[in-house]
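Hi team,

Below is the intake form for Stage 0 sporulation protein A homolog from Clostridium manihotivorum. Please confirm the fields before the structure is written into the shared record.

FORM ID: S-0412
PROTEIN: Stage 0 sporulation protein A homolog
ORGANISM: Clostridium manihotivorum
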Amino acid sequence: MNIIVCEDSEKQRIDIVKQIDNIIRKNYLNMKVYLSTENPYDVIKSIKDTPELSVYILDVDLKCNINGIELADKIRDKDPYSFIIFITSHSEMTHLTFKYKVEAFDYIIKNSREQLYRGISDALLKINMRLGNSNVSDKYFTIEDGRSITKIDFRDILFFETTSTKNKIKVNCFNRSKEFYSKLKDIEESLDQRFIKCHKSFIVNLDNIESIDKKEKLIYMRNGQTCCLSKSYTKALLDKIKF
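The structure came back. Fields below:
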């Protein structure tokens, strides 16, 4: 499911997206931030580009020629079934959602950052539950080598790494490791949001990181193992993780 964020404050928009990424990763939600923008017309254009069910998180006061509720009205014309969540400092404007008949899923008041982020988290989890997308229990990485099939719980995986043998990968877990034939790119595409590439030869599980040494370019895992980190992947990793 795609999430579209429309918020006119760049700083707040970046913070909201970061929090959404954390919510998705920690709860293993089948969601992703598809668009983050200050421009309501980018949102309208995105409806044609992504026909699947979406969640729209809209600031009511967009400092534009249309506000968030008017934007929601335009969204409903093109996308009648998706979820709309309003965020605002103006509780007195809630009546407009009824006037425009936009059928908002939630209306979150921005009294504090904590209240805002808790409200977004609660809304996304409720949407996830409503759609029946909670599938944490069946998150396994499966290895087939011709003679056997091995299923590894995603929660047990620390990181994947390439080996000196061509097209051979090693998966490192808390109490075991296993080598198998595959390509790192194919593995990356089969994983969920808790995994991220941290080096051209490594994919790490964000949930099992203990600490990061940016100077030595090392990631320390919860069992004491270390994983390589390269400069080109450091920012993306730090943007995703929050200790």
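SUMMARY LINE: The helical segments are 10-27, 40-49, 68-78, 95-99, 113-131, 184-190, 231-240.

Thanks, M.
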